[in-house]
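Re: export button greyed out
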Amino acid sequence: MALDLGPLWLTLKLATVTTLVLLVVGTPIAWWLSQTRSRLKQVVATLVALPLVLPPTVLGFYLLLLLGPAGPVGQLTQTLGLGTLPFTFAGLVVGSAVYSLPFLVQPVHNAFESIGARPLEVAATLRASPLVSFFTVALPLALPGLLSGAILSFAHTMGEFGVILMIGGNIPGETKVLSIAIYDHVESLEWNQAHWLAGAMVLFSFLVVLAVNLLGQRMRRIGHG
Amino acid sequence: MGPIYPILAILLLAGTCASLQADEVKVAVAANFTVAMKEIAAGFEQATGHTTRISFGSTGKLYAQIRNGAPFGVFLAADQARPRRLVEAGQASGRFTYAVGKLVLWSADPALIDGEGRVLARADFRRLAIANPRTAPYGAAALEVMKALAVDERVRPRLVRGDNIVQTYQFVATRNAELGFVARAQIALRPGGSSWEVPQSLYTPIRQDAVLLERAASDPAALALIDYLEGSEARAIVERYGYGLE
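Workaround output, generated via the alternate export path:
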């Protein structure tokens, strides 16, 4: 029995790239949410949380229309000479980033809020510019939140299925990720291969959640100590 | 040994009552037959007073669900292989061909496809959508056609695979794929775009078989639906959606 490991590497690549993208895009959003007094705050926080409650079919359907040749994003990417995003790895990164956004933003937002105003005020009296105090005070103090946000985004992207099923097109090496490969095996009655991949997935997910729990416990201990 | 007989009797009685009242039939239907089945179900409900509850999906998925105890009474597949396997496993009976599927190459762009399908040899498109050949018979037929025309090597890097034929249609309809192999039934009643009716000589006929599933072997609604599917009203609908008949 030849077990094709291509989908595994592709999934790890997708989860890594998505997590990096989310750290870059999501951290400023979390920071803004923790600092702002704007009336838009609750609106933005709600938008960020939406992927938690929307079924992947809704996200996938709108992504297919938005990113497609007739959609606004699709027309933009075509004008830029990038072609359209559905059925490409880049398209999956966009879809996964939207889908996993709350898993990064919410822990990081909480971490920023729990720092409180005091350390930043102290930094300001020492003449640190807002940008400098963000990088030298806020980010290091929020590190546990960033770490658990990154782990959760990574794990959530590993387990993503519905959105990818709708915009991926099941292309080996490009969009055929682990969950799709398992689904494919199950549907074509290759339950042996499905077992191997699915079992690996269960083990991996267990380890990730365990890591997050242990991390949380350690942080609480440090906090109390 | 004694006390078991009353219990058995009660169980038997309960079973009989249930089957007398059961006037709803749960039907598993291959995705390509979605629209036609809705119309057939409406006619069936009107003619018999029974009701239907229909689940659509790829033949492969529905088959896996049935093998694992999904509560369907009738299975309308998109192939012959899976119904045959169910019969061999003793999980179904009464296999018959209710429709013969026809494959078309279709594009939402009215100018893309000529009447001969030469666009395949030109291969001047980015994406061609087919149903997943491993689970959907229309996808397997599409591969056969491309092999017969000796364009499969050239087209392979441009293939995207829909989970079933409905998703394949959706990829083409949203223009995310410029063209794709879909079921004639999907475009039969919807004008627009351009298409090529693939000659039957290029692929194995897609005989779509239906079976009565074991759990509904004596269910009157399921039996009535099988009768209705073999009758002239249902066959007329099947034909109108562009399927062949046997």
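The first strand of chain B starts at residue 24 and ends at 30. The button fix ships in the next patch.
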